Amino acid sequence: PSGIIGTGTYYAYKLFSLLFLNVPKDVASLKSKQQKLSRPMLKAVKLLETAANDNNTDAMFMLAEMNFYGNYTYPRDYVEAFRRYNDLAMLDGNSSAQHMIGFMYSTGIGGAVKHDQAKAMLYHTFAAEAGDIRSEMTIAFRHHSAIATPRNCEEAVHYYKKVADKAIRFYRSGPPGGHSLVKNSYRIADEEGGVYGEGASVSSSGALAKQRNPASDAHAALDDVLEYLDLMSRKGEQKATFSLGRLHYEGSRALKKDLR
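The line above is the sequence of ERAD-associated protein; the predicted structure tokens follow.
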């Protein structure tokens, strides 16, 4: 500002702010975070921090997840999340923590750390070797697409096969015939006639219009279908009996599996 009075006032205010209004950034962020927390949450966090300081791995991981994802309405803090993940990874080589460190190095999310694809590759590799599925997929894709490493299809196949073997083992560990996924994929908006309502959406017009015909099966209640199939089954209709068995075996979004 021009003038002696204006200049003096300006620098007096700057000096006052510097001496009395400034607090360390970490302290300021900690105070603002504590003000946002409810009393039970504040107590829980203090208990977790006490346990984490005693190298309790569960507490360290939970604090890291809370700071990264904002779980339980806890304010996000990517810097603190990275510190917790890093402490956990250094303590016992936790593969989930290594994966998250690799992810944060590869994306630089939240400005917690600078982009470093070499370190991202390193941590993802350690996590993949420890069996973390997400890092196995990441490393496979990086080798396949030559991200921060020369293209190597053999390495990509090696890690993709690890994930595929785990998927097959899981599938075969279920009931006879293996686990089965719900086959009828759908969008929640479809139950209301589409994103913009009945007749005004892509899901209720064009190629999908027949699904919204009042005479179509889309409007049939599941209970009515089951009752009809049960009636036909009692009359000796083998196709209806098979359909009933298959419905209860595979389940759907409206019908839970019932193997019995």
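Note on the example: Confidence is low (pLDDT under 50) at residues 212-216. The chain is about 60% helix and 0% strand.
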